[in-house]
Every structure is written in structure tokens, then in C-alpha cells.
Amino acid sequence: MDFPHGLRHLVLCTFRTDISDEQYALLVREFARLKEAIPVVRHFEHGLNNSPEGLADGYTDCFTLLFDGVAGRDAYLLDPAHLRFVELLKPWLAKVLVVDYVPGPVV
Description:
Blueprint: E1 7-15, H1 21-37, E2 43-48, E3 61-67, H2 70-78, H3 80-89, E4 93-101
Antiparallel strand pairs: 1-3, 1-4, 2-3
Helix pairs in contact: 1-3
């Protein structure tokens, strides 16, 4: 799906080694459900790193959310559903990196 406009919110994660398959599946499912719970989330996707370059720095999972702009992202960050999810997620994270950007013109 092509989204030429809007703000992308990328969340790269590495989960703790003691996470069970069931707990992992629950976290991915609950992250995806934020799209239904928080109207400013325009799109959600999740995928596993499969880059052959060896530059992932240990990150295994990528979550991408799309917002119309900064205001939507800011509302999402403060939304009670997001805050509850963060509390569910945090204990299972070994490492996390968050990057937000608005696609710009190619120069």
C-alpha cells in the first residue's frame, strides 16, 4: 500500500530471550489492535527483519504506524490505549528504537 503523505512511526524491537511464543503473539496482536482503538492510526504493519546485510544491530521486529501528521502521532502517544499497551510491552523488550519521519522530496 502506498502512502505518499503522512508521518511514519517506526518501532524496531528486540524481545527478551525468555518470551514465550504465546506472549510474543499476544504483544503483536495487541499492537495491531491499537489501529482499531485509536482513530488517528491510519495504517499498521508488522514484519520480521530478513535483511541479509547483517546491519540490523540485533533488531528482529519492525512495526510501522502511519498518521496524517505530527498532531495525530502526538495524540496517539498520549492515548490511554497506547499507554496501556506500552506497559504491557516494556517488560518484554530487550531493546527498542523509535524513529518518526515525514517523507520528503527526493533531491
